[in-house]
Amino acid sequence: MKIESLLDHLSRVKKQSDGSFLSLCPAHNDRNPSLHITPKEDRVLLHCLSGCQPEAVCQAMGITMTDLFTDSELTSPKKIVAEYSYQDEDGKELYQVVRFEPKGFSQRHRNGNNEWVWNLKDVRRVPYHLPEILVEQDTIYWVEGEKDADMLWSYGQVATTSCGGASNFKPEYADYFTGKRVVVIPDNDAPGYEYAHQVGVALKDKAREVRVIVLAEKDISEWLEAGNDIVELPGMEQDTLPSPKDGNYAQAHQAITDLLPLLVGETLTREQWYRQIGANPFDPKQAEYRHAINKVLLNLSKTNKKKQIVKAGSGFKVIDDSVEAIDLLGDASMAINLVLPFGIHKYCIVFAGNIVIVFGSKDAGKTAFLLNTVKMNRNSGHKITYFSSEMGRDELRNRLLQDKELTLEQWAGIFTPVMRSSNFDEVLDPDGLNLIDFLELGGDENEYYKGVALIRRVYDRLVGGKGIAVIACQKNQGATLPKGGSGMLEKARIAVSLDKGEAKLVVAKNWADGIISSPVGKNWTYKLVGGINYMNIKEGDYD
Predict the structure, then answer these.
(1) pTM of the full structure
(2) Which CATH number fits domain 335-539: 1.10.1790.10, 3.40.50.300, 1.25.40.20, 3.40.50.2300?
(3) Is the Cβ–Cβ distance between 264 and 223 less than 8 Å?
């Protein structure tokens, strides 16, 4: 479709200095132009500043997504995949809404010659499934879109909608629902809430009862496809009808669902959720948005099937439902002969894919632990990569020059030092010995939980390889856990705590041969010289 033809479907079109256009968005009740139309060489891009999806905008315009292509050679043939018939009181067809593949919608009616005319000019509009609605005495569900309505019909429920969404809703539809009981189920986006608001207001003085169901999923079809039971719907009804302000809920829902894949396994307080989504925890002007965030989190945690979030104390945890099949009959992995400072390897061992965590207070010797691990394993056959997040070339050179055993030239031949401070999973060698010095969590304690996800990403990268990772992270002096809490140690097969002059074994999952009781609590004292040399090492008793 040419840009001129497309603009004919829109109102209050204004050309911008860059050649793009602004207009009222037909997919929601727009008062200030919010639809950005950008012509490209082969297509037209639509972006609603209020969040309407391009598919919804096209449907409201009566065009399909393929009409956005300006070069007919690039346009795939449109295939009709569904025809939704709108009928009058006696069952006579008035018009159809047609669904295409690639996804798109259009409306048509028959003229006096029984030919299809692809518009609804001068055609009477009615709710979907009008004949059945008129005789129904029980609950009628009002959803957005014919597909959702028919989905409910397939479950034995009476359901309706109207074509064109919020921008084409007609208050006179409510006349058909006089004395009826209607339950409105909005789509979980801003246009969906506006549409549901218009429906609710129109029905308020006509229907005998109007209630609403707010879903955690995008719409009723997704809710049912997620495995939820249709019999649950009556128990989910609420008295409060949606208002345009409930667009906050849709915005929060979208923001949270976008975050979920990045926070698998994490538990966040409400304040941490606010910060992740960009809501100021203390700004009075954002109180309604924070309330919407709380509501989304609570609704997601109450979903019965395919739950993504669960309540965890005063916060909410993102469920990690990933699994990896264990091949019991496959080749057995051999323990890796990893040598560690203080003789830790005499008490516990590691296998391919394992993670070792070294967490220490400032100047306790984390870097020394990692550099000594490099030196002790120089003949292991593994490629050794040392990721430095804070030491540049000169500082690292000076540190290595303090070593009392190897020359700088010898150091240069045994490992590959690189500068890297983030996203270690993207660059580490799944078959090598990777030493990360160190995992930065920033200065904001509300952000420390991110460290768990960072370690999990390293773990996932190692799966299937022959290598391991030794990760240094921070802790406060005298603390028993690293910054980020106990979750930082979940993937560790060995974990060592360092305070100035003292090392303690706090995690030992795989005991070495001959060890018959847990070595956890084993400790050593030492003196650190030159930032790299452990001197006067003395093995202590178990704590």
Answers:
(1) 0.48
(2) 3.40.50.300
(3) no
